[in-house]
């Protein structure tokens, strides 16, 4: 829950930065459209186009980071139980130990139920604010 909370805080910060780039880009496009005669008469088309492309590149970077943090917050941290199960099983497999079916399934069920209940509490808390 803590990691999901931190990832949503980080997403909020990234969204703010992305919005600043988006506002700058929209301002430049609006300036180009409203001042088309002036821009064309002075030959400033390439200058404005370069500024718009630079703002879009900055905005795209933050959109990518938001997707990455969102993936961590929603998918990776929510499925921590499966990752914990793998962290327990992989060393056993690497040592060549035989996994007892009853113990393995019981372990997976316990870890799944713990993470499921924690995530349920988190989703309930988020939807009742």
Write the layout of secondary structure elements.
Layout: H1 2-34, H2 36-42, H3 45-76, H4 80-95, H5 101-127
Order of helices and strands: HHHHH
Beta content: under 5%
Radius of gyration: 25 Å
Number of strands: 0
Question: How much helical structure, as a percent, in the residues?
Answer: over 70%
Any low-confidence stretches, pLDDT <50, length ≥5?
A: none
Please report the distance between the alpha carbons of the first and last residues. 16 Å
Global structural class: mainly alpha
- Calculate the mean pLDDT score and round it: 77
Total number of helices: 5
**Main pleated-sheet profile:** none
Shape: elongated
Number of domains: 2
Task: Provide a descriptive summary of the structure in words.
This protein is mostly helical. It has five helices and no strands. It has helices spanning 2-34, 36-42, 45-76, 80-95, 101-127. Helix 1 (2-34) runs antiparallel to helix 3 (45-76) and helix 4 runs antiparallel to helix 5 (101-127). The chain starts with a helix and ends with a helix. The model has no long low-confidence stretch (mean pLDDT 77).
